[in-house]
Amino acid sequence: MERRERRYGGERRGFAPGFPPKPVEVGKEYDVEIQEASRRGEGIARIKGLVCFVPNTKPGDKVRIKITRISRRFAEAESLGKATGKIEPEAETTAEAEKARTEEEETDEEEEETE
Q1: Which domains does the chain show, CATH number per domain?
Q2: Which of 31, 66, 71, 68 is nearest to 51 (CA)?
Q3: Closest CA to 84 of 32, 45, 34, 49
Q4: What dihedral do alpha carbons 27, 33, 38, 41 form, nearest 10°?
């Protein structure tokens, strides 16, 4: 019997799905529309599905933002002023995104069972 080496922070064993690459980069600027407000009063924009928190903004604002921090599930940004370029509308609503994610997870589970 072969003994496996254990180490802190070793490989994950399928407890949670990995996080896909982020559609934004720290330091880059984006033109967005603030869609809603967070509980803390920050504006929320989405860039290709990734939630971005933008302080000192409110829903309906069209602003240019600069990404300051990227987390596993969201990004934080600062407002640089009014948007100057074209703002592309977000393709999915939150409900549509959740439905798609749930369906994708169910499909993955079915594929694992058949293997």
Answers
A1: 29-109 (2.40.50.140)
A2: 71
A3: 32
A4: 90
